[in-house]
Structure formats: C-alpha cells, structure tokens
Write a structure and sequence with these properties.
Largest sheet: 5 strands, antiparallel
Low-confidence stretches: none
Mean pLDDT: 88
Helix content: under 10%
Strand content: over 45%
Order of helices and strands: EHEEEHEEEEEE
Oligomer: single chain
Distance between the termini: 23 Å
Length: about 160
Amino acid sequence: MIEAQPDAANLLPDAEPLRIAALDPEGLAILSAHLQDADIRVGDMAYLPEQRRFALAGARFDWYAAARGGCERCGTGLHFERVTRVRRAGFDQDPDAVLTLLAISYEPTEAPAGTVMLHFDDDGAVRLDVEVLEAVLSDIGPRWNCKSPPDRDGVPRPSPA
C-alpha cells in the first residue's frame, strides 16, 4: 500500500529534483536503482499507443536520504519512448492495486530494438517492446517523511518509540 502523502504541514522542503535519462543499459541500471522499492498504483501506469509512450507515476523511496539516516519518499514519474507493445502479467489489474517496483532490466533484440522489463513484487511484470532504449525519470511531486523504509539489508530501521 502506498503510504498516504501527509498534509501540507508535514511535507519536507523541496530538494533538488532528480532527473535521469537512460539511453543505454548502464543508464537504465542507474535509473532502476533509484526506483527500487517505488510504490506504483496500477491505475497510474498507461500505454499511449498514438505517442508510442509508456508512462507511470509513483512514490519512490529516496535511497540517498536513507544513506544519511532519513526515510523519505518523493512523487516521481517515469516514461519510455518509442514503445511498440506492452504486456502485463502476474498482478491484479484493479487500478487501485499497489505494486512495488523491484528493478528494471533491458534485453536487446535486433539492434537498436529491445525489451524492457519492469519487475514488481509477487512476480508481477510489465514488458515493453521498444524500438530503442529511451527512458526518463523525473521527480514531479512533493517529498515527505515515510513511516518505515523498505525491508532491505543495510537500510537502518527506526527504533521503536
């Protein structure tokens, strides 16, 4: 479940928004690392065939803040260009269902085309057939303190009060 954004009094000051473009597998790996454990509603993913674009919005966990002892999330958007086909599998298509993004990978087919895989918790996946790898991540929303960080090795857990 996406942690609800707090009211305006609990929002954090704006940090420098993150913006990353990925045009090759190495760039996509960096983008994937920043989106690890992002919460995404199924209804916030869309394929726009006329524009050959796949876009999503979610709440990314800020791994830089976690390294400094913080626990923050930020509204973030991601889009892929030159998408020719989208397939979804392994998750409820209810628009209010929430998925946790674990990783994004790329497998080339006939250069420069390839397949982008968005890997979600519980074996959910979205497969994008692309003419060329072109993705952009942009922070688009507020930043807020979250109640608990993702359950990952090396991520400090808050002390019980």
